[in-house]
Amino acid sequence: MKRAGLMAASILLAASVLGGCAGGSSDGGSGKGSRITLYSPETPDFTKELAQKYQETHDEKVDVHYAGTNVLVNQMLAEKDNPKADVWYGGGGILPFEAAVEKGILGKYIPDFAADWDIVENGIKMKHGDGNYVGVEIFVLGFAYNTELVTEEEAPKTWEDLLDPKWEGKIQFPNPAASGTATLMVMDQMMRNGEDEAWAYFEKLVKQANSMPDSGSTPTKSVSMGEAHIAVGFDFMAYEQKAKGESVDFVVPDKTPVLVNPVSIIEGGPNEEGGKKFIDFLLSKDAQQIMANWYHIPINPEVESKTPLTLDNIKEHAVELDIDWVNANYDRVRSEWQAKFQ
């Protein structure tokens, strides 16, 4: 490895179209005047920056359609017989991509940059075994904390630490029935400890929480505003707040999910060649630097992380996810959570 029922189309089209829309459309080939259509749930300003950099270096337009991951997946399923997108990038890690493989909406493409990567490296699945997606950055699930309310020494270091009575009413985590971030948290507990023990754990954790918002990023923002002491979320959420001058820092738990955030070509998309070039671009130094500037952990070794976290120093924390089990139980677990806690 080089170091590593469907929702209506109108919902999606409320999304931002960040490339220019006038004059031309995807013409089935890559080159001047052609377009790449990118579906992504990542931060609109972030994906706009990626699109603009690609346009500067490739002289090819990128239209970015933003919506939540579930909306985008439903849209791609609705368009399966006549795909509109060329590339899907991001979704809080590999789980939604894994679930989409069997639905026939993902094509196969692995860039040369990632050709000799191991499929799983140090517990982190770096790419799909059949080439349906490839990771372009690293996300770590852990704990944000307000540094004015919690010292570094007393901040929780393990998932079990969240059950300490001192955190009662001071924790926020996303709603697993709505948030992929929190679903990952639940699945991880079940894979490591078994379902009975995991449900017992969450019976206790729910009592510790003062809120369970649907959005994966809201708990970290609540920590920055002092509305919670501790939040469960991804690393970049905390470091973005810290970079804005907020009193927030992040703990990587002893053992926790560490995932790549992937990209995939869309099966039968109108501009396959352009889509492949855009995927190549996402692993390039230019794109990886933009990711790093947004406090994501880059994979390209030529780019330095803007946070204390790197692939090298977080891989020892990674727990290996049983992807087959996740795929078989993902929807059931979310439904059971809803039945138990809502």
TrEMBL record:
InterPro entries: Ferric-bd. Residues 1-19 form the signal peptide. It holds the Pfam family SBP_bac_6. CDD domains: PBP2_Fe3_thiamine_like. The keyword Signal applies. It comes from the Bacteria. Keywords: Signal. The keyword Signal applies. PANTHER family: ABC TRANSPORTER SUBSTRATE-BINDING PROTEIN, THIAMINE-BINDING PERIPLASMIC PROTEIN-RELATED. This is Iron(III) transport system substrate-binding protein. It comes from Sporosarcina psychrophila.
